């Protein structure tokens, strides 16, 4: 052994990321008695809720399902303040969890993992941190999130703007002061909507550059009191069970009846009730055919368009803010609060970039085909490199030295979003081909995957084996099944971050579209059957 090798620390598991996934993974692995080291690029815990601190950032899931369920003590001790927690509240919660379970001591912060390679001989991963530190680990668990790496728009001059500019997912810790400022924002999806509705009344002028309008649902948020929290706690055993019985990991499932059998009058009543609930239930808790049947989808789309149109004063503006090229729920449906009212204000202007194209970003603002806009602040709410971004930015090399980036350059294929053939003992959470990549309430699917992964690691250790990976055949079968269930989704035909294009030109949903409940059953079966589709060595 060389001197350099002697100094390399050896651990049983490395966990990358200190967000919802990484914190729980670290907790579980430590409870199992493993020596675990966590790494986090940020200076503290929080993951998504550490980075995405833009104005108005908030969950679109209710607090009852946007939390951990593994500890009754935690459920008793933490008091949610709002039905839909803000970024600040969610970040506080994750800090509380980290302190309560003493997780911080196992993480090294401000430490980005830059490389990881699997050594076939030792059956261990060699993990490299940006400062050059290396360590060896038997298992590698990537809690790096599906929406992590920011994407900037492909517009000439990006980076040239001399005023303040922010990507929403890299927002500074200090509160930005918008008073008296002219602000431009690109992006009108979940993030852009939250920013726009929040800052419209603070800025001097807000110019919104919209490429695709989205359907939204008005959020019914409110402060919780002790009585409400007590009620939620009493319901918790049922909620914990329910989230694993539904398509999207929420505590509301779809109506079991075929939509055609629901009388006309009742349809309207159901839609009104779901809409008024102010959650994602109008989308994820209505009828399964909403996702697959054009006629059913059009009924829900029409209803949503009517509701939205009624709130916009200028009819011409309403037409621009209403989606016409896709059906309701075929793209991510954000919840909103006074979003449309923001456009009724005199200081807010909408630029439809399909009519007036963006030509370039200049030192002072944005040049369109019609005029030059001068801004003090420019905000990019332009999304993420979905699913793969956080993983391919690390130089990950499998048993034959192939980089994951190269392997995925063609198609990002996985076994159930949790392992990739050729990369033994590496586990991913919220990765492509799992429901959590797009179609599942993140804490539900993240916890379910972490539990499956840690049980799998336990199995390997109990079998006195060194490594585990899915067979090539098992992965191919999962990919075929993924494509088959995905092909029936209307979302499959709509351009959005939910859909990718394969190397042979087909569209493919990034997430598993068979349902989070079905996915969990399959995971449970694999465990009970003793991991039959895996190579253990
Ligand atoms: P998204 O959903 O990827 O949205 C990005 C937005 O940026 C969307 O409105 C895009 O329009 C817009 N965009 C991107 N590039 C351009 C250019 N060049 N010109 C104009 N507009 C552009 O990201 P979010 O952060 O809002 O949400 C991601 C997820 O985070 C969200 O779904 C939640 O699950 C949490 P497009 O729609 O592509 O036409």
Report on this structure.
The protein is α/β, with parallel strands linked by helices and 537 residues long. It folds into 2 domains: 3-149 and 385-531, FAD/NAD(P)-binding domain, CATH 3.50.50; 217-380, no CATH class. Helices cover 32% and strands 17% of the residues. The chain has 17 helices and 22 strands. The chain has helices at 3-6, 20-31, 48-51, 72-77, 87-100, 190-199, 226-242, 264-277, 281-284, 294-309, 315-321, 339-343, 389-392, 404-410, 442-462, 472-487, 516-528, and strands at 9-16, 36-39, 107-108, 113-119, 124-129, 134-142, 164-167, 182-186, 205-210, 217-218, 335-336, 348-352, 358-361, 365-368, 372-374, 377-380, 395-397, 426-428, 468-470, 499-501, 507-509, 534-536. Strands 1, 2, 3, 4, 5, 6, 17 and 18 form an 8-stranded mixed sheet that branches. Strand 20 (499-501) and strand 21 form a beta hairpin. The longest helix is centred in the C-terminal third of the chain and has 21 residues, at 442-462. The two termini are 24 Å apart. The structure holds ligand NA7. Ligand NA7 binds at residues 147, 153-155, 186-192, 209, 211-212, 332, 353, 358, 381-384, 497.
């Amino acid at each position: 052994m060389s001197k350099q090798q002697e100094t390399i620390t050896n651990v049983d598991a490395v966990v990358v990321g200190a967000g919802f996934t990484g914190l729980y993974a670290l907790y579980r692995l430590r409870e199992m008695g493993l020596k675990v080291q966590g790494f986090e690029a940020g200076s503290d815990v929080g993951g998504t809720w550490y980075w995405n601190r833009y104005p108005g950032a908030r969950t679109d899931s209710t607090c009852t399902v946007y939390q951990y369920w593994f500890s009754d003590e935690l459920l008793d001790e933490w008091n949610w303040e709002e039905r839909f927690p803000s970024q600040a509240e969610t970040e506080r919660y994750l800090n509380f969890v980290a302190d309560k379970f003493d997780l911080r001591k196992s993480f090294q912060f401000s430490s980005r993992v830059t490389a990881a390679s699997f050594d076939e001989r030792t059956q261990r991963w060699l993990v490299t941190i940006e400062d050059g530190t290396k360590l060896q680990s038997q298992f590698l668990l990537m809690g790096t999130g599906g929406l992590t790496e920011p994407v900037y728009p492909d517009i000439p001059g990006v980076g040239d703007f001399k005023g303040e500019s922010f990507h929403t997912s890299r927002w500074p810790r200090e509160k930005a002061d918008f008073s008296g400022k002219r602000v431009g924002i690109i992006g009108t999806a979940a993030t852009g909507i939250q920013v726009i509705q929040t800052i419209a009344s603070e800025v001097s002028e807000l110019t919104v550059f919209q490429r695709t309008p989205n359907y939204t649902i008005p959020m019914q948020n409110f402060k919780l009191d002790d009585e409400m929290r007590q009620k939620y706690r009493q319901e918790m055993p049922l909620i914990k069970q329910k989230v694993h019985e539904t398509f999207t990991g929420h505590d509301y499932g779809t109506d079991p009846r075929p939509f055609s059998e629901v009388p006309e009058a009742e349809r309207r009543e159901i839609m009104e009730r779901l809409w008024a609930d102010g959650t994602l239930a109008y989308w994820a808790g209505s009828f399964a055919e909403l996702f697959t049947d054009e006629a059913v989808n059009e009924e829900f789309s029409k209803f949503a368009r009517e509701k939205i149109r009624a709130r916009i004063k200028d009819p011409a503006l309403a037409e621009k803010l209403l989606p016409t090229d896709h059906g309701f729920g075929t793209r991510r449906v954000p919840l909103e609060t006074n979003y449309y009212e923001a456009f009724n204000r005199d200081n807010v202007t909408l630029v439809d970039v399909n009519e007036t194209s963006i030509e370039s970003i200049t030192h002072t603002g944005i040049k369109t085909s019609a005029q030059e806009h001068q801004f003090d602040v420019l905000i990019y709410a332009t999304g993420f490199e979905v699913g793969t971004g956080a993983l391919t930015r690390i130089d990950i090399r499998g048993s034959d030295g192939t980089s994951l980036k190269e392997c995925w350059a063609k198609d990002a294929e996985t076994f159930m979003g949790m392992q990739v053939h050729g990369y033994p003992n590496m586990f991913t959470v919220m990765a492509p081909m799992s429901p959590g990549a797009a179609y599942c309430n993140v804490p539900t699917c993240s916890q379910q995957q972490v539990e499956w992964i840690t049980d799998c690691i336990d199995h390997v250790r109990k079998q006195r084996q060194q490594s585990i990976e899915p067979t090539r055949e098992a992965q191919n079968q999962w990919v075929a099944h993924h494509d088959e269930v995905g092909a029936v989704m209307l979302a499959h035909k709509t351009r959005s971050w939910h859909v990718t294009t394969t190397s042979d030109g087909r569209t493919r949903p990034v997430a598993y579209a068979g349902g989070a409940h079905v996915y969990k059953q399959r995971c449970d079966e694999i465990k009970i059957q003793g991991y039959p589709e895996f190579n253990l060595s």
